[in-house]
Amino acid sequence: MDFGGAMNNGGDNAVHHVDLVSWYMDIPPVSRYYLTGAFLTTAACAVDIISPFSLYFNWELVVGGQVWRLLTSYLFFGVFSIDFLFHMYFLVRYSRLLEDGEFRGRTANYVLMLLFGIVCISVVASYLNVHFLGSALTFMMAYVWGRLNESVRMSFLGFLTFNAPYLPWVMLGFSVLIGNSITMDIIGICVGHMYYFLEFVYPVVADIRDWRMKRVMEPPMVLQWMCGTFQGIEQVNLQAHEHAD
Prior knowledge:
Strand content: under 5%
Structural class: mainly alpha
Largest sheet: 2 strands, antiparallel
Oligomer: single chain
Number of helices: 12
Order of helices and strands: HHHHHHHHEEHHHH
């Protein structure tokens, strides 16, 4: 960004400010809250208000009463850097695409997906020497989005083109090339595959085979109420009647 130009032209600076605010407010709520939490957590660490040592995931400390680590380990993506911006880009992009796409009007289902990812990733992390888990959750989002958009063509660095389902594998390969650990990448892909199967594959199989339990990933009423998507029995019956007519 050209800070000098912004200082010399107050009108342009105001326009840019409004555009940034508009962009931020256009992000759907769950994705916006996650982005805000990640940014504020990193900012608090940058000015030494809190220490990363009080945020990282450690199962023994969680059991010992420091339960906030179950959440904060997904909010810290490192110090302000190119790597941090890279993570924020992927977080906002694929969280937003999911929330505005497949989960539009189903906020509770999207929150349940994130909770499922947090629980599964945390369980796996308790057996491994990993401390900050947000990148695994981002990989889970990218995996689910890719499987839901199989015909979308994508490009990496302008020369490698591929279909969306291969996105997490391309990202994993890039991590290998630059020498980063791929542990979190693999965890995110595996958890994403588990969620995709339970949410989108299992209901189809259950319906074909006429199993009693048609859906596994159905958000509880209390979560639907908290997310503002709860429909009472009378409203559901009314919609069903109108659909039948």
